[in-house]
Design a protein that fits this description.
Chain A: GO terms for molecular function: ATP binding; ATP hydrolysis activity. The complex is a heterodimer of chains A (about 525) and B (about 325). Chain A is built from 18 helices and 24 strands. With about 525 residues, chain A is of the alpha/beta class. Chain A has 3 domains: about 240 residues, Rossmann fold; about 160 residues, Rossmann fold (3-Layer(aba) Sandwich), CATH 3.40.50; about 70 residues, no CATH class. In chain A, a hairpin with a 5-residue loop joins strand 13 and strand 14. Chain B has a single domain, classed as ABC transporter involved in vitamin B12 uptake, BtuC, CATH 1.10.3470. Helix content of chain B is about 70%, strand content about 0%. Chain B is built from 14 helices and 4 strands. In chain B, strand 2 and strand 3 form a beta hairpin. In chain B, helix 2 runs parallel beside helix 7, helix 3 packs across helix 10 and helix 11 crosses helix 12. Classes of the chains: A alpha/beta (about 525), B mainly alpha (about 325). At the A-B interface, strand 1, strand 2, helix 1, helix 11 and helix 12 of A face helix 8 and helix 9 of B.
């Protein structure tokens, strides 16, 4: 892989607080980081932007020692470091406020702040509450927080808990004796808008004595609070923007890139949709995270739902497969009303679902290709109540050939296949029964390389041509636009607009982004 | 956030962690190796060990354990555990002893049916109330033990006329204990049913990855309830074997079989986390455990040490077979 480049001689500029050069991280079949470069100056708030899967999470994890990179270097104040654990990172003054909050709810704020580093607050194994209170108060004072250190954490608001987290992270100052680098991973996702303002004031304050890396999917927030933004795409840093005067649109263009559509999406294979009775018809569907969803999908049509993280589109998809409970509304399939109390009912109705988390939810890793392929439609491999080995072999081999699944054999554990071939087996699971009417594809190309993606797209086209209705949650806006006949834009649990997306008249990503944020 | 994505073409297949881990591959042969080693060791310690008479005794001792372990293996394969099997077997010995005078030949199917129903009830509690099987069956164990005490009047219930169950204590061809033959039959029958029906797929998928199984539309809940039901029935059948041998039922008669049964399952190499394993492995495991049990006095170890041995066996065997990728938060 890439050899760490020679460090340029530092000229007059002060040494960066944190610098990343050519960071590479492979996962089986996937390059999560593909030579990322990143510079965080002292007393700077750096924004990190990128679509889902651009490598943000992996990069952050590498910075706090949760992931060991395969190649590349991390420099702290000019010195190369190897970060093997969170403690390692803390020793170098790097701390992270995690997306999922990491406080123990039934302890006091003070206990949480000092957890794992009680120091003088514990003598002979006994808590000294006065010392603990004083130490915690010192931390809270740093960020000017008025929280009572002895308040139970679960009695605090989300915003206050976040302050506690920040106060906790700031304790790394004492370990490294240097201005710390604080990483905030999607800190605004649980906050109300007023609380966000408080958080931003806090971040600006942190800048006085620390450097901050700020990650958010809300580009307006990133531009608001950061001095500079680094954009990641496909595991690479693709650009850097000074936030003064920048607009979200510009950032977004960098995030999604501008690869020419060389018929990657097989757009010419798109089949015109007959506008008769819709195959799937959803009216007023409501659940915990979505309200009043109307959705029609005709046989042979591909409808994409786009929206940012938290728009509720995944939950709509899961509701259509009987996983997510609904509170109101009705679902009709070919005119017939459906009740979907569980996944079995959905399967029986001819609905198939390809989950986003292929390795955890899509497939059973240690089981064979054949078993994974026939897991749902058992009838297809059985004679009466019994498995018919010959029938199964014929069926599975036929689909292996038809989808050109590269596998040593049908009895190979599916986990030995590459990601793209695994996904084809997962797709085949819904096809072997020959009764598929509606396919729900939740990020069907996540984690796949470009060749495998293209094959999945081709397969989607073929299925649409054969009359299968498809609901697609694309991995990227481009994918949604490239594949869909129609796009629904969801924002905050509601469908805000519907955009026709015919071959030859595709909307631009930016048109959609306007509605999404 | 999300799983990482690469858009760069990546070399084919080159998937990292694949197939069974080396330790798991080893455990495939572990029970057989242990069996051979044990027989060899015991033969060296006591040259008289390798005789038809003592092997017959081993088989006869192993029979109830095999049946108990076989049933509980199904629950373990689904990713759960059934701790109530021994207590349920004890209760069933009492019921059988009480019912034999009234029901005669029908008493055996009746008590097995009751045991199966009790198992199913625990399965339903586990599935519907969403309580870990460990807790449900721990509670079940306590309840069933207490019921056995109450029903039996806290004492052994003698069987005066054991003719309806006596056949189980006969010998085939003079040497093969009928109980051992029946135990083998039970294992073979369940294993066959699994093999020739979709049940094998369903159970494995449920054990390896319940969420994936559910999303594939597999009847996860029914499969689990079924496993508990069969586990209960097996406990019932093991109880019948005990009664046929001891001419009585007792409220704690089978209680000391819980640890050996769990040991048999894990020594066989079935992963306690579910998915990986088989009934045949538990059969081998049951023989290993029985040989140890029989062998300890031969090599001069007081039988009081038996429980220590089970404890050590269970911990070591689980350490070797555990699917760490499932329980660790570090990927």
């Amino acid at each position: 892989m890439s050899v760490p480049a020679e460090r340029e001689p530092t000229t007059s500029a002060p040494v960066p607080a944190l610098e990343v050069r050519g960071l590479v991280k492979h996962y089986p079949g996937v390059k999560a980081l593909d030579g990322v470069d990143l510079v965080v100056h002292q007393h700077e708030v750096l924004g990190l932007a990128g679509e889902n899967g651009a490598g943000k999470s992996t990069l952050l994890k590498a910075l706090v020692g949760l992931v060991t990179p395969d190649a590349g270097e991390i420099y702290v104040r000019g010195g190369a470091v190897k970060l093997r654990s969170v403690v390692d990172a803390a020793d170098h003054g790097i701390g992270m406020v995690f997306q999922e909050q990491s406080l123990v709810p039934n302890l006091t704020a003070a206990e949480n702040i000092l957890l794992g580093g009680e120091g003088p607050a514990v003598r002979r194994g006994v808590y000294r509450w006065d010392v603990m209170r004083r130490l915690a108060q010192e931390q809270l004072d740093k960020i000017g927080s008025k929280i009572d250190p002895l308040a139970r954490t679960d009695s605090l608001s989300f915003a206050d808990r976040q302050m506690v987290e920040i106060a906790k992270v700031l304790r790394i100052e004492q370990r490294s004796q240097h201005p710390p680098v604080i990483i905030l991973d999607e800190p605004t996702s649980v906050l109300e808008s007023k609380e966000i303002e408080t958080l931003f004031a806090q971040i600006r304050r942190l800048r006085e004595f620390a450097s901050v890396v700020f990650v958010s999917h809300r580009l307006d927030e990133v531009l608001d609070v950061c001095d500079r933004v680094t954009v990641l795409r496909s595991g690479q840093s693709v650009g850097e923007v000074a936030t003064a005067g920048a607009v979200p649109r510009e950032l977004h263009r960098m995030m999604i890139g501008s690869t020419g559509s060389d018929d990657h999406y097989h757009e010419n294979a798109a089949t015109p949709v007959a506008a008769e009775q819709p195959r799937l018809s959803v009216r007023g569907l409501s659940g915990k995270s979505f309200q009043d969803i109307d959705l029609d999908v005709a046989a042979g049509e591909i409808v994409a739902i786009v929206g940012v993280h938290g728009s509720g589109r995944e939950d709509v998809c899961r509701a259509l497969f009987g996983i997510e409970p609904t509170t109101a509304g009705e679902i009709r399939m070919d005119g017939k009303k459906l009740s979907l109390p569980n996944t079995r009912a959905a399967c029986a109705a001819g609905i198939g679902y390809v989950p986003a988390e292929r390795k955890i939810e899509g497939m059973v890793g240690p089981m064979s290709v054949a078993e994974n392929m026939t897991l749902t439609k058992q009838k297809a491999r059985c004679a009466g109540p019994f498995v018919a080995p010959k029938k199964q072999a014929g069926l599975v081999d036929r689909w292996i050939e038809r989808l050109s699944i590269r596998t040593p054999g049908r009895d190979t554990p599916i986990q030995r296949l590459s990601g793209g071939n695994q996904q084809k087996v997962v797709l085949a699971r819904w096809l072997v029964g020959g009764d598929i009417r509606l396919l729900l594809l939740d990020h069907p190309t996540r984690g796949l390389d470009i060749g495998a993606r293209s094959e999945v797209y081709r397969l989607m086209r073929e299925l649409a041509a054969s009359g299968v209705a498809t609901v697609l949650l694309g991995d990227s806006l481009e994918e949604a636009i490239g594949m869909a006949d129609r796009i629904l834009v969801m924002n905050d649990g509601r469908v805000v607009t519907e955009v026709a997306c015919p071959n030859g008249g595709k909307p631009s990503p930016l048109d959609l982004v306007k509605e999404m944020v | 956030m999300s799983t990482p994505v690469a858009m760069q073409p990546v070399a084919e297949p080159a998937t990292g962690r694949t197939g069974p881990r080396p330790a798991q591959r080893l455990t495939g042969f572990m029970p057989l190796i242990a069996l051979v080693a044990l027989v060899a060791a015991l033969t060296i310690a006591d040259p008289d060990f390798l005789t038809a008479r003592s092997l017959t005794a081993v088989a006869r001792t192993a029979a109830p354990l095999i049946v108990l372990a076989a049933g509980a293996t199904l629950v373990v394969l689904c990713g759960g555990i059934d701790l109530s099997i021994a207590a349920l077997a004890s209760l069933t010995t009492v019921l059988l002893a009480l019912w034999l005078p009234h029901l005669g030949g029908l008493a055996t199917p009746a008590v097995i049916g009751v045991a199966a129903a009790i198992g199913a009830v625990q399965g339903v509690a586990h599935v519907l109330l969403r309580i870990p099987s460990f807790i449900v069956t721990l509670g079940g164990m306590s309840i069933l033990s207490a019921v056995a005490l109450v029903v039996s009047g806290a004492g052994t219930v003698r069987v005066v006329d054991d003719s309806p169950v006596a056949w189980l204590d006969l010998y085939l061809a003079g040497y093969v204990p009928m109980s051992a033959a029946m135990a083998l039959l039970v294992v073979a029958l369940i294993a066959l049913v699994l093999k020739v029906t979709p049940l094998q797929s369903w159970i494995s998928a449920t054990g390896y990855s319940e969420s994936a199984a559910r999303l594939a539309g597999t009847p996860v809940d029914l499969v689990k309830i079924g496993a508990f039901c069969v586990s209960g029935a097996c406990a019932g059948f093991a109880a019948v074997m005990l009664v046929s041998r001891q001419f009585s039922g007792g409220p704690t008669m089978a209680d000391n079989l819980l640890l050996p049964a769990v040991a048999a399952i894990v020594v066989g190499g079935t992963a306690i986390t579910g998915g990986h394993g088989s009934l045949w492995r538990s059969l081998a495991g049951a023989f290993v455990v029985t040989l140890l049990r029989v062998g300890l006095p031969i090599v001069g170890v007081p039988s009081a040490y038996e429980q220590i041995l089970y404890g050590v066996i269970i911990v070591v065997a689980v350490a070797l077979t555990l699917d760490w990728s499932k329980v660790s938060i570090i990927k």
